[in-house]
Amino acid sequence: MRGAFLRLRPEAPPDKDWQGYTSVEKHCMQREAVVHSDPDVLGGTPVFVGTRVPVKNLYQYLEAGDSLADFLEDFPSVSRQQAVAALELGREMTEANATPA
Questions:
Q1: Residue 79 belongs to some domain of the structure
Q2: What is the pTM of this model?
Q3: Using one digit for the tens of pLDDT, what is the confidence trace for 27-47?
């Protein structure tokens, strides 16, 4: 596979049998592309689709105490919808992989 994608908006109901897929896998396959990984773009670093902005930049901004608005101002090629979708996907993946107490 040349590149990997994380997806955003739900598409038409798929003709797939979802049995055997995790909720995160199902979620990713049903969404429009938000994050793309391609070996020819920044060596395969995951970037927001349509940009050369690494997704890790968003997390680094937030970790440093900067706001989402600051990130979007500094990276105008990334839409608010893309940034929020990436954060939501990160939350869902964290919840799906949480270790029970």
A1: yes
A2: 0.67
A3: 555 456 788 899 999 999 999
